[in-house]
Amino acid sequence: MQIPKNVLANADDFGYSSSVNKAILLCYERGIINSTSLMTNTEGFYDAVEKIHSNSAITNIGVHVDLAELRPITNIDPFFLNETGGWNISVTGSLMRYFSSAQKDALYKEIVAQVNRAIDQKIFITHIDSHLHLHTLPAFIGIFSQVAKEYRLKLRLAQTYRQGSFTKYLYRYIINQKLIRKELNYSDRFETIEYFLSKYPNSNIARKTELMLHPDLDANGNLVDHYDSNTMIRWLDFLGQPYTS
């Protein structure tokens, strides 16, 4: 089975490692994904760049901005960093965190630098999103929207279905409506594989829906999702695809 019409099956974390890069290329070649988001502050970045330029199957590429795990590429305020020089997720990932104008400017410059690193490698970028979805937090949504508008890129929505807290759902609905009004949205909906498959084919198919995967290869060369193993299993089963490479 092919990926359904109006579905963007996006592979996050392209560039994260050699095995992730191999898995994502394999997924493109087998029609398991049709979109990806590239990390540019990783050891595997240039390997991913080489794969992009040498494989026409890799299309619809975005930047997966990392403000959560690895190291920044600008000389940013140590306030944002942990003791090893990587991002301090307790600072950048805090739901209630707000930043000063100077701090927002520094974060803007880091996001722009990560986007430009891909552009400098002559990669055509269509969208941006973020590692661990930090772009949907109150402190970041405005900065990411600004970058998306300036670079004429689309921006991933927050999760569009209700799961648990109504307050969280309402917040996500409000920011998504703002993105849609500004015509920055990459899709009409953003869902997990599990949620999408629980509704398919009775809903979602008429609207452009983004689904997220994290492809990787295990020690035996089998395709896995390094974030949630059930995600890859269910998606491959849906498409009628084998797990092995």
From TrEMBL:
It comes from the Bacteria. InterPro entries: Glyco_hydro/deAcase_b/a-brl (IPR011330), YdjC-like (IPR006879). GO terms for biological process: carbohydrate metabolic process. One of its GO terms (molecular function) is hydrolase activity. Keywords: Carbohydrate metabolism, Hydrolase, Magnesium, Metal-binding. Its cofactor is Mg(2+). This is ChbG/HpnK family deacetylase. It holds the Pfam family YdjC.
